[in-house]
Amino acid sequence: MATTVQPQTEIGVRVKALREAAGLSLRDLAERSGVSAPMLSQVERGETSPTLTVAARIAAGLELRLSQLLRLDEDGAVTVVRAAERRRGGNHRRGHSFEVLTSAQPGQRAELSRHTLAPGGATGAADDPPMHEPGSRETALVEHGGLVLVCDGQRHELREGDCVTFDADLPHHFENPTDADAAFLAVVAAGLRRS
Asked: What structural domains and CATH numbers belong to the chain?
């Protein structure tokens, strides 16, 4: 007897939400996963619970690990990261420092970080691209100062309060061309498709 995933309604609601967020029709997900559209529809409506094999194929079709689809990597619904527990880093030679505000636990679908750039500083360079997984998207909000986002060779000037969203798997970095410190918040969401 095959092992099934429970409860039916929770997995179904999750599959449907992830499929729609990815902009996929039932037919698209069926083609990508090898699971028939009628079976996917039954799972989404909570009429059947997929076996682990079928759930793994659905996860692959959504470009997720099975543990991500089933939320096995998560430990409870709430994760608190205290200020003293934040991961910190940067490149002081480039005038860049950052702290990651979210948990490093497996299964996180987004990472929030705060970056500070000294005058003339940069988060990286053309020869030092960030390492984001394919399909990642990044949204950045300029808290104070002025920045330039260089993304895929194009320059985008940003001022305090401006918010920008881009494909984070493209070569990119931020520069501070001003004579004052600049700070921005960045959210990187994994595995989202370009629209």
From this structure: 8-69 (1.10.260.40), 83-189 (2.60.120.10)
